Amino acid sequence: MVLTLSNREQFREAKSRLIALGIDHQVVGTDPIVFQINTEFSVYRPDDLAEKISDLGQVLAHAEKSPLLDKIQPGHEVVVEGNAFSPIRIKNFAKSIWVAGPCSLDEHNDIFETAAFLKKIGVQILRGGAIKPRTSPHEFQGVGREGYQVLQKAAHANGLACISEALSEDDVSDAVKYLDIIQVGARNMQNFSLLKKLGRSRKPILLKRAPGATLREWALAAEYLLSEGNDKVILCERGVRGLERELRYTLDLAGASFMQHRYGLPVMIDPSHATGLKQILESCTAGAIAMGFAGVMLETHPDPIHAKSDALQALSPQSLAKMAERLMR
Ligand code: PEP
Ligand code: MN
Fold it and tell me: Which of 3, 10, 122, 208 could hold 186 in an S-S bridge, CB 3.0 to 4.6 Å?
């Protein structure tokens, strides 16, 4: 964005305004005075920023990389609808929605029983991986796409919505058929052909942040979904690669908060994958709720000893219930 001052006397006012707004800028012309303004990393949407400085002179906006995202309004709401449950309204700075369930569906985990229990404690969305992105090809890869249907049955029989991951483009048609929300996993955040295909569906999409992605890369991945016409996009922070060895990843609550403020899309927090540690899940979840995130996602398994993935971070249903009692509002 370029700001050309109407007169030289406004230099001090323009400079102090830009600093007060926290906007990265430089003077690139002196007669008239011209400021080059970096909007890409600003906490303000380009239109809002232009409005804040338009009295100083002429504002010229360049073509941006995220024109659709930049039109999303603060408080953008994603509504998850289905016949089996009441509509779920997902947005920031409102009641946080709870998503819970096992990392993956497996034979040691009666998903119908889990769904009934979760419904009782106030959870609205049942999660359960059917096709799992595993670090090693020798680890459990999931039960396959048939799992989508099982998850749906368990969720809908109990008045819950369901979410599971589509790992590849081949999964999309079944995912659209059976799931209420489709998850794009961290490893697929920049799988642009998958994003485009999901963008052509009209299903709500939960877009997880890749552990090594910048906020801007995450935002531009969302732009891919929007560019195909799907604005039912929920972002999900699940931890980035940090310095610690004690934790699985680093939960970037500040980065997620920036996304809420700058882009307006609902942001959920997944403390389970971010920490990998059930002992600190409650405090991280409390923090996420206090910060006005649209929802929290937590892994639970009735028999973690037999969980085929992510056993260490799985809360027992009883611990989840206690946590929900203390934090849900
Ligand atoms: C998951 O939700 O189980 C999962 C694999 O998440 P992520 O893509 O964030 O690792
Ligand atoms: Mn998991």
Answer: 208
